[in-house]
Structure formats: structure tokens, C-alpha cells
Amino acid sequence: MAAYMIGTDIGTTSTKCVLYDLKGHVIAHADKGYPLYQDVPDMAEEDPEDIFNAVIDVLGQVIRKVKVKPEEIKGVSFSSAMHSLILMDENDEPLTRAITWADNRAAKYSEELKANGLGAEIYAKTGTPIHPMAPLSKMLWLKNEQPDLFKKAKKFIDLKTYVFFKLFGVYQMEYSIASATGMFNIFELKWEPQVLDLLDITTDRLPELVAPTDTIDHINDSYGKLLGIAQTTPFVFGASDGVLSNLGVNAIDPGVVAVTIGTSGAVRVVVDKPMVDPNGRLFCYALTKDKWVVGGPVNNGGIVFRWVRDQLFAPEKITAEQMQVSSYDILTQIAEKIPAGSDGLLFQPYLGGERAPIWNAYARGSFFGLTRQHTRAHMVRSALEGIVYNLYVVMLMIEGIAGKPKRIQATGGFARSALWRQMLADIFEQDVTIPESFESSCLGAATLGLYALGYIDELSEVKNMIGVTEVHHPNAENFEVYRELLPIWLRLSRTLEPEYKAIAEFQKKHTNPNK
Ligand code: ADP
């Protein structure tokens, strides 16, 4: 009899679903997108019903595609985006849309927490950096600015809890999503009393806590029939997309660091106990009860390369489109002609403020060191280098608490460029491996599911489920150049810091929003 495990990833822009056999081979996949509501500045919301419908839709699609029989589905496991918040009313109906991580309306409250010192105390227990992304800040914002709504809320939940509630009728949240709320004590695995006091709520208004490997069955009858899923099929609560992506790219063993450069970026490593950064700049989120992921999220990843392409290389972009080749490939070929270090042109990539490593929403980008000899080609290379320097600083912080890295597993759109991959190896002075894994968070969810249900003994068995496309070794000559430039780049960050707020405020005041 065939046997399958399903991994579903509830993402910010779409839900993806992959049906695997028990060896981790992809048998079928589906995805479904939904809108992000941005009615007012800084808002980023989703309709929980859209998300739930998308989950049902993609599960139905993969099951139908392969004509899977109910008894052949051994489990369904979940990944989801972190930090979402939904308020539920007395009748278990949503009082709000899902307020996502990208929503910045709580900024005033996270700044207050940082300024009054309470933020540092709370971070030291929760491992969630104090930031508007976190449900803690969002709840403070709602409590102060919409007190009636806040009072009316019977439960404060997240998107994955909502989906499980619709399927199973209980409010349960696993440790991984809980550890990204800013309200969960990662050392004691419980809701943090200091935060409950601050919000003036009791635990009965939060979901019951369960482990990522815990399971639940007896799916709501009508959804079970609709999908062809048996009442006995276990659903694994799973974890958050960030930590599961580490698992899905086989960055699970000690010292193996996952670097992602997609639109944004991240550096993460798995450790075997919760750890926090003395300066509150890194997150620590649960993967399982005894595996934790320490890392930093970076706003300025590939989106900066996109800006370089659109603003500095518009003609090349048009030519590439006419030739039907990737405009990024054309730009990389241009950058390749410039030596490592861009002849001393440095770039600070903070075009969209920054989270890790500097956690400064006012940060802005800059080129430094320009001479008449520098060309557009230098600018593109130094932009790519600047993105990697910034990630390297996050790596240094991680190294400070979790030890030296042994190897880098790198993923994201940037991996299509051999030049950029090599740059990562050279600046980090580490071997960089590009794992071949499709939808890494779905694979992470499915692997966690296989582990939870006893089909594999160790999470590291994921290594048999992915391939390797490329390995890059550091080039000593390039590394020497980067080693000379890095201290200047770092000092520059510190030198510019006091001016970020002034220039950002000027921009806010003088930018015509209707332009
Ligand atoms: P997302 O993070 O939104 O899922 P991707 O992982 O696909 O997106 O990353 C998109 C980014 O990858 C782009 O902004 C760009 O910087 C980079 N990218 C895409 N194609 C290439 C390429 N051929 N060479 C270098 N970088 C690329």
C-alpha cells in the first residue's frame, strides 16, 4: 500500500502543500495565494477565512491529483509564518483580520518597551526581539488604542491556531509559534507571567500550549469527507516557517548555518537549548522541545539587488526582457568584471530600515568611498557585497553565543548567481553548500511529521531527502581583501547611525505620498 506524509506551509502570500512519500520524495504539490490588506499606512493584514480556504484547497488538490486513499495518508504536518495575531470573540468568530508580521502599526509600543528597559527584561525570557512584528507589541497597541475590541476578545490566537480550531474545535498553539509571540518563556515553556501582567490578561485568553511534535485527530467530519481524510489520520501541529526551513535545507546539525537571501534574508543555526543575545538582537525560536533556532532576520536581501537593477540598470533590464534572459544574470555578468572589494567602494544596504543586525527602522542606505574611477559596474558589485557583509555581521553575533560555524547551507533567489554564492563563501570564509530542496518549509514540516509519528528516528535523516547542487570553497585571495574592508564597513555603520533618524524624518516630511 502506498503511504504518504503531507507538509503544508501557511505563508504570508500563499499556502503551499506538498505530498511526499515516506522517503521524502515529492509526489504532488499545490499552492494558493491570497491578498494582503494594506488599507492604511503600515497595515499588513490577511483574512483568516482566505487562509483557511487556501489550506483546504491545497490539501484537496494534492490528495485528488494522486487519487490518494484515506488510509494512505499517514499524517499531515504544518509550517506557518510567525507573529500573526487574530482576536476571537465569544462565539469563536474572528473580531479582527490576521495582523501579520509585516504590520508596523505597533511601532510606538515596541519603542516604548525598549526605552523603559522592560523590553530587555522580557526579551531575556522570551527570545523574541522587541519589535512591532511581535504579537506582544500588537496586543499592547490594541489594548491602548482599541480597548473595547481588546476587552471583547475571548482568545488571542495566530493563523495556524485558527486553521487547527476550524479543523478540530480546540485552541492549541505549539511552542514554536508561541516562542515568536514575545509572550512565551522559552526556558520554562509557558506563557510568561510578566507579559500577562503587562497586558492584564490571564492564560485562559491564550491558546493551550502543545509541543510541535504533538498530534491531534478526529478532523471535523465535513472537512474530512470533503478532503478524503480519515478521522484516524493524525495532524502534527508542526512549527514556524523559519525554523522548519532550517530543517528543510538540512541545517540541523550543530554548527551548520542556514543563510537565506530571497527578497529579505536570514541567518539561523540550530542549538540544543534556548539561548538569548545579551543585546537583544537575535531571536531564539523553538523547533522542538529540545532543538532551538537562534538567528537574525534581515530586511535587505535580494530586494536591494532588485532596486539596483530597476534604478541603475533599467536599459539592461529592457534588453534582458527582449532577449528573454534573466536581467539579474546580465547584472551579475557585469559585476563579475570588477575585482572582489569593488576597488574600495562600500555599500550599506539599509534601503528598507533594518532588523538584524542593527534593529533600526530609520536606517538608510549609502555608497561610501566613491571616486571618479568607479562605474555602475562597481556599484552593482558593491551592493551585492554590502548585502553579504550585513549578513556576516549577523553571523558574528550568532557565533558569539552559539559557537563557530562549520558550514553554510544557503538558499533563496540569490543562489541562482554563481558570483553571489562565491561571495558568500569568501566573505564568511566558509564552505557554502546549496541544497536542492523544493519548498523547504513544507519539507521541514513533513520531516517533523515523520519524526513525530515515528517513521524516522532523527530529524537529521532529512539529509537523505535533499540533493546538493553546488559547493563553493572560500577563495583565500578574495577573503584577504574582504578582511581588510570589513572593519571599515563596520565602523561606517556606527559612524552613520546617529544620522539615520534625522534623514528618515526629513524624508517622511518631504515625501509626497501621492507621487
Ligand atoms: P522570495 O524571498 O520572495 O521567495 P526569491 O527567493 O525568489 O523570493 O528571491 C528573489 C530575489 O532573488 C530577487 O529579489 C533577486 O535579488 C534574487 N535573484 C533572483 N534571480 C536571480 C539571479 N538569476 N541571480 C541573482 N539573484 C537573483
TrEMBL record:
Its EC number is 2.7.1.12. Residues 4-248 form the Carbohydrate kinase FGGY N-terminal domain. GO terms for molecular function: gluconokinase activity. It is an enzyme of class 2 (transferase). The keyword Transferase applies. Keywords: Kinase, Transferase. PANTHER family: GLUCONOKINASE, SUGAR KINASE. Belongs to the FGGY kinase family. This is Gluconokinase. It comes from Agrilactobacillus yilanensis. The lineage of its organism: Bacteria, Bacillati, Bacillota, Bacilli, Lactobacillales.
